[in-house]
Design goal:
The complex is a heterodimer of chains A (about 800) and B (about 150).
Chain A lengths: L17 H5 L15 E7 L5 E3 L5 H5 L3 E6 H4 L25 E2 L5 E7 L2 H8 L6 E3 L6 H5 L14 E9 L2 H6 L3 E9 L11 E6 L4 E5 L4 H12 L6 E4 L15 H13 L3 E4 L2 H7 L6 E9 L5 E11 L11 H9 L9 E8 L14 H19 L3 H8 L8 E2 L5 E2 L4 H11 L5 H10 L3 E15 L2 H4 L6 E7 L5 E5 L8 H13 L6 E4 L17 H28 L7 E3 L2 E3 L5 E4 H10 L13 E6 L17 E16 L4 E12 L6 H21 L30 E5 L16 H17 L14 H11 L13
Chain B lengths: L1 E2 L2 E2 L12 H7 L18 E4 L2 E4 L12 E3 L8 H13 L8 H14 L5 H7 L11 H15 L1
Helix pairs in contact in B: 2-3, 2-5
Classes of the chains: A alpha+beta (about 800), B alpha+beta (about 150).
Chain lengths: ~800, ~150
C-alpha cells in the first residue's frame, strides 16, 4: 500500500469548533437543563483539621426548597471509598464526603439538595459542622518533625511516599568533581484555575446512569464512579460537553462528581452541581509546592559529572484521585533528562499537610525540574566565570549526541535541544546583550536575559502512577455510505481543537477533504475506550490511533476496489474521495466502494466482512513495558523540545518585572496544525509567567486560605502578558505514526526557569540569589531590600 | 428593562438578590457565563445601555429601566461579525468560555475609540480574563478589525 500524501497535516487550518463558541452557543455543564433538575451545594469544613462530631442537619432539612441533606456517615454504607490501586503509597481511605475527620479548609462533609441553587446554598450554610479542632500541619517541614501529630493516625509519620534511586556511579562523580553546586530551590503552591470551574450533572433512569461532567477523563471518571457506587461500568455513561479549560485540574476524579452521581440514583431526579470560585480555589486541587535540594558535580571546565536531588513535596491532604504524588515522580525521574550525565541519584518524599490536595497542573513536575537544572547551570557558570550559553553547550544534548538515553532511561531519538537554544539566543540577540545591559545600567535600568532549553516528555504511561492503562488510546473510523468519514476518538478535549486536528490527520489518510470528516469525542457511549487528554498526549495517541484505523480501512477499500474493477491494486492510493492509480487516474470512488461494503456478499470478495469501519487501539512503540535491570525505562511516548529566551527589566523600587522580549524556539516533529501549536505555546507561556510573577496560593499558619478568590489569587490580564515570538524547527518522531510529538506543556515548563534566570541576571548588581519561582513584585522587592540590608517584613503570606 | 430589545418585567416573586447574570441565564441567554462571580474575570460581561457591565455583580433590579444586551442580542451586528471572523482567523479562542465576554468588550471598545495600538487594546480587555490563549491572538484580532475600520 502506498502511503498517503500529506495535504492537510501541517496546514494552519482554522478550527471548526470556533463558530458555535463565537456565537455564544457553546454548551458547558452549567448550560445543561433537565426536567425536574435539582441542585446540590456542599457544606465544607471551615477548619483545616478536626474530628467531626454528629453534624446537625435539622435546620438545613427544614429550610425552604430543600429536598435532602446527607452527611458522610449517612452514606458511608452505600458508597465505597475511592479506590486504592497504588500499593507503594501509604493507604488513604476517603469517601465522597468526609467521615470522622476533616483535613483541609473546604473539605466537604455534607451535601444539601434543593429545588434551586440559591436554596441549596442557603441551606448548606445551616449545616452545623460540630468539628473538634486538631493541631494543624501547614508546611512539609512541620509535618516532617518527629513530634508532629499525624494527619493519618494509622501511618507512622506524615509521609505519603518515600523513594530513592541511583543510576550510574554518583559517589564516583562527586569524588572526582572540581566543583559542586549545592542549592535548594522552591516552587510555590499554585492553582490551575480553568475559567470554567468544576461541575457536573447526573441523571438516572432506573437502569442507566448518565453523568455530564467538565472533565478531562470521561472513561476514567466512569470506571471510578461505577466502582464507588458499585454499579456495573457498562451501565454508566459519561458525556463531556464543552469544557471551559482543564490544564490538568480536571484530570482528577473528584469526590463531588461521585456524590452527585450517588444523589441522582438515590433521589431519582437529575442533580446539578456548579462550583463557585471560593470552593474552586479551596477545595479542588492545587499544584507545585515542591522543594528540591540539587547538588551538581562538575569539572573545572564546566562539564557535569553527576547530580543528586533531595526532593520534598507538600502534597496537602493528598485526597486526590488518582493520586497526589504523580508530578513528583516526573520531577525526580526527569531531572537529568537532556543533560549529558549518566550519574544521578534522587530521594523524594511526598508529605501530607492540612492543605487542599495536590493534583495535576500543566507542567506536572517538569517545570520544577527545568527550573532546578537551569538555575543550577547558571550558578555553575557563575562559579566558574563562564558564559551561561557556553555551560549549556558543554552539557545539553545536541543533535550530534542522538540517539541519547538519559540517566533514568528516557530515549531522545530525534530533536534539537541545543540547536533550539542557539537559535533562540540568536533571535534574542544574546551575543550583544552584555553591552545593552551595561548601557541600561548606566541609565539606572536593570535589564537581564535568561534562557531555558529542555526536552519535553509527553504521552506518558499512566499505569505505574495510577494503576490503570498504559499509554494507550483509541480511534474508531467509519467510512459512511456516501464516502465521508465519521471518527470517534478516545481522548476528550477542553478547548485544544481535537475535532479540527484529527480531521486533518484522517483527511490525509483517507484522501478526503477535512470537511468530509466529522470527529466526535467525550461520550463514553460513542467513543472507544480512552484514558483522557493530559500529559500532552492527544496528537500522539489519538493521531496514532486514527492513522492505524485509517490504514486498516485503506487496505479494505483497495481490496474492494480491486474486486469491483477486477484489476490488480498496483500502487493505488486514496485521493479526493477516490481510489486512483499511480498516474492519478480514478479507479473507483469511495462512495461506490462504501456502497459495495454495505451491500454485503453480493458485491464483496468472498469471506470479506461487510462494512467499512475500523477501531484501533494504539500505544507508542517507544514506551517500555517495564524497567530494565538498572531501573531505567522509557516511560513516555515522545520527546519534543523547546528553548525559551526572555529579556526582562526589573524595577528595584517596586519589585516589578517587565518582560521586554519573549522568544520560544520549539521542535515537536511533524506539526499537525501550526496555528494550534502556536496557541499551545502562547497559552503555556502565559501560565508559566503567571506562575512565576503573579500567582501563589497562600495559607496562613492557622490553615485558613488567604487566596480564596481571584482578587487575592492574581490571574494576570492582557496588560501583564507579553507577546511571544515563536520559531519552529521540525525533527519528526521516528517511533510513532505521523511523526507527531506532544508539546502542549512546554510553554509552562520553560517560563519559570527562563524568567528566573533573566531576573537574576538583571539583579547582578544586588546580592540576590533567585532560588524560588515566587517572584511577584512584593516577593522580589523583599529580596532586593534584604540584599540592601533592609529587612522588610512580608506583607502577604508566610516566608517559605 | 429591555433584554436584547424585548421588554421584560421582573416577576412578582423575583428574588431581590438575583444577579443580572443569573436572570439572563435563566432566560436561556447562556452566552453569559458565570465563573468568578466577583467582578474579576469578565466571562459574564453584557452591555447595559451600550456599556460593558459585569452581570455577576449587578443585581437584576439595578438593571430596571435600562437596556441590557447579551452576545445573542448582537447576532446581526456587522462589526461583531468582523470580530468573530478575526478571532477565528487568529485562533483567539480555545475553550471559548471567555469568548462572549471578550467579544462584547471588544465590540464596545471599537465603538467608542477604535485605537488600533496594542497598548490601548490591552487596556480595553484588561477586565476579561482568558486562561487559554495568552491574549496575544485576541489583541491581534481586535487590532485587525480596528485597522480595517480606519482604512
Amino acid at each position: 500500500v502506498t502511503l498517503p500524501r500529506r495535504r492537510w497535516v501541517g496546514r494552519p487550518l482554522l478550527r471548526r469548533e470556533d463558530r458555535r463558541l463565537l456565537e455564544g452557543r457553546g454548551r458547558y455543564v452549567d448550560d445543561i437543563d433537565l426536567p425536574g433538575l435539582l441542585h446540590v451545594r456542599f457544606a465544607r469544613s471551615p477548619l483545616p483539621h478536626g474530628l467531626l462530631g454528629g453534624s446537625d442537619t435539622a435546620a438545613a432539612r427544614a429550610a425552604a426548597g430543600v429536598i435532602a441533606v446527607v452527611t458522610g456517615s449517612d452514606i458511608a454504607k452505600d458508597v465505597a471509598p475511592f479506590p486504592q490501586r497504588l500499593t507503594f503509597l501509604r493507604p488513604i481511605t476517603y469517601h465522597p464526603l468526609a467521615v470522622e475527620r476533616v483535613r483541609f479548609v473546604g473539605e466537604p462533609f455534607a451535601a444539601v439538595v434543593a429545588a434551586s441553587e440559591v436554596a441549596a446554598e442557603d441551606a448548606a450554610e445551616l449545616v452545623d459542622a460540630a468539628i473538634d479542632p486538631l493541631p494543624v500541619l501547614m508546611s512539609a517541614t512541620d509535618a516532617l518533625a518527629s513530634s508532629a501529630p499525624r494527619l493519618y493516625p494509622e501511618w507512622e509519620d506524615n509521609v505519603l511516599v518515600h523513594r530513592s534511586a541511583s543510576y550510574g556511579d554518583v559517589e564516583g562523580a562527586f569524588a572526582a568533581a572540581d566543583v559542586v553546586i549545592d542549592e535548594t530551590f522552591h516552587m510555590q503552591r499554585q492553582a490551575a484555575v480553568p475559567l470554567e470551574t468544576r461541575g457536573c450533572v447526573a441523571s438516572y433512569d432506573g437502569n442507566l446512569l448518565t453523568i455530564w461532567s467538565s472533565t478531562q477523563m470521561p472513561h476514567f471518571l466512569r470506571s471510578t464512579v461505577a466502582e464507588i457506587l458499585r454499579v456495573p461500568e457498562a451501565r454508566v455513561r459519561v458525556i463531556v460537553p464543552d469544557v471551559g479549560g482543564g490544564f490538568g485540574l480536571k484530570y482528577q476524579v473528584y469526590r463531588e462528581e461521585a456524590l452527585v452521581a450517588y444523589l441522582t440514583m438515590r433521589l431519582g431526579r437529575p442533580v446539578k452541581w456548579r462550583e463557585d470560585i471560593r470552593e474552586h480555589l479551596a477545595a479542588s486541587t492545587h499544584a507545585r509546592d515542591k522543594t528540591v535540594r540539587c547538588e551538581m558535580a562538575a569539572t573545572a571546565d564546566g562539564r557535569i559529572l553527576g547530580l543528586r536531588a533531595s526532593i520534598v513535596v507538600d502534597v496537602g491532604s493528598a485526597m486526590a484521585f488518582p493520586y497526589s504524588h504523580g508530578s513528583t515522580l516526573v520531577l525526580a525521574g526527569g531531572l537529568p533528562l537532556a543533560l549529558k550525565t549518566e550519574n544521578y541519584a534522587y530521594d523524594y518524599r511526598c508529605v501530607v499537610t492540612n492543605k487542599a490536595p495536590v493534583g495535576a497542573y500543566r507542567g506536572f513536575g517538569n517545570n520544577m525540574r527545568v527550573f532546578v537544572i537551569e538555575r543550577s547551570l547558571d550558578l555553575l557558570a557563575e562559579r566558574l566565570g563562564m558564559d551561561r550559553a557556553e555551560i549549556r553547550r558543554r552539557n545539553v544534548v545536541s543533535r550530534a549526541d542522538l540517539p541519547y538515553r538519559s540517566a533514568t532511561g528516557t530515549r531522545i531519538t530525534t530533536g534539537t535541544v541545543l540547536e533550539a537554544l542557539e537559535k533562540g539566543l540568536d533571535l534574542a540577540a544574546y551575543a550583544g546583550f552584555a553591552d545593552r545591559q551595561r548601557t541600561a545600567r548606566a541609565e539606572g535600568r536593570y535589564i537581564g536575559i535568561g534562557s531555558a532549553s529542555f526536552a519535553e516528555t509527553a504521552a506518558p504511561r499512566f499505569f505505574e502512577m495510577a494503576g490503570a492503562g498504559g499509554a494507550i488510546d483509541s480511534a474508531k473510523v467509519r467510512i459512511e455510505q456516501d464516502g465521508s468519514a465519521s471518527v470517534a476518538i478516545g481522548v476528550s478535549p477542553q478547548g485544544q481543537g481535537h475535532e479540527t486536528m484529527i480531521a486533518q490527520v484522517v483527511a490525509d489518510e483517507l484522501g478526503l477533504d477535512p470537511d468530509a470528516v466529522a470527529v466526535r469525542h467525550g461520550d463514553t457511549a460513542v467513543a472507544p475506550y480512552g484514558i483522557g487528554a493530559w500529559g500532552s498526549r492527544s496528537a500522539v495517541v489519538a493521531g496514532g490511533a486514527a492513522i492505524m484505523a485509517c490504514g486498516r480501512l485503506r487496505e479494505k477499500v483497495l481490496t474492494i476496489a480491486a474486486h469491483l474493477t477486477q484489476r490488480a491494486p498496483e500502487r493505488w492510493r486514496l485521493e479526493d474521495g477516490r481510489v486512483v492509480d499511480r498516474d492519478g487516474q480514478a479507479i473507483a470512488s469511495l462512495r461506490e466502494i462504501a456502497d459495495a461494503a454495505y451491500a454485503g456478499r453480493a458485491r464483496l470478495p468472498a469471506e470479506m466482512e461487510p462494512g467499512l469501519e475500523a477501531t484501533a487501539y494504539f500505544e507508542p512503540a517507544s514506551v517500555d513495558a517495564k524497567p530494565d535491570a538498572e531501573g531505567r525505562a522509557m516511560r513516555h511516548g515522545t520527546v519534543s523540545n523547546q528553548a525559551h529566551v526572555v529579556t526582562v527589566e526589573v524595577v528595584p523600587a517596586t519589585g516589578e518585572v517587565r518582560i521586554l522580549d519573549y522568544v520560544v524556539v520549539h521542535d515537536c516533529g511533524t506539526m499537525i496544525n501550526p496555528l494550534m501549536v502556536d496557541g499551545q505555546i502562547r497559552g503555556g507561556v502565559f501560565q508559566g509567567i503567571a506562575g512565576t510573577l503573579h500567582e501563589e496560593i497562600v495559607y496562613d499558619e492557622d490553615g485558613q486560605l488567604l487566596t480564596g478568590s481571584l482578587i487575592e489569587y492574581h490571574v494576570p490580564t492582557a496588560k501583564e502578558i507579553p507577546s511571544v515570538r515563536i520559531e519552529h524547527l521540525s525533527s519528526p518522531d521516528t517511533t510513532v505514526p505521523g511523526g507527531f510529538k506532544g508539546m502542549a506543556e512546554g510553554g509552562t515548563i520553560g517560563a519559570p526557569a527562563a524568567i528566573a534566570s533573566a531576573v537574576a541576571d538583571a539583579l547582578r548588581p544586588f546580592d540576590v540569589n533567585i532560588t524560588t519561582t515566587a517572584l511577584s513584585p512584593i516577593k522580589l522587592w523583599q529580596l532586593i531590600e534584604r540584599s540592601r540590608g533592609r529587612a522588610r517584613e512580608p506583607a502577604l503570606g508566610r516566608e517559605k | 428593562m429591555t433584554i436584547n430589545g424585548a421588554e421584560v418585567a421582573l416577576p412578582d416573586d423575583h428574588e431581590p438578590r438575583t444577579s443580572l447574570g443569573h436572570l439572563l441565564r435563566g432566560f436561556g441567554l447562556t452566552s453569559v457565563k458565570m465563573a468568578c462571580e466577583q467582578g474579576i474575570c469578565g466571562a459574564c460581561t453584557v452591555l447595559v445601555d451600550g456599556l460593558p457591565a459585569k452581570s455577576c455583580i449587578v443585581l437584576a433590579v439595578q438593571a430596571a429601566g435600562h437596556e441590557v444586551t447579551t452576545l445573542e442580542g448582537h447576532a446581526d451586528d456587522p462589526q461583531l461579525e468582523r470580530l468573530r471572523v478575526a478571532f477565528h482567523e487568529t485562533h483567539a479562542l480555545q475553550c471559548g468560555f471567555c469568548t462572549p465576554g471578550m467579544l462584547l468588550s471588544a465590540l464596545c471598545y471599537l465603538r467608542s475609540s477604535p485605537d488600533p495600538r496594542e497598548g490601548a487594546i490591552r487596556d480595553a480587555i484588561s477586565g476579561d480574563l482568558c486562561r487559554c490563549t495568552g491574549y496575544q491572538p485576541i489583541v491581534e484580532a481586535i487590532e485587525r478589525v480596528a485597522r480595517a475600520g480606519i482604512s
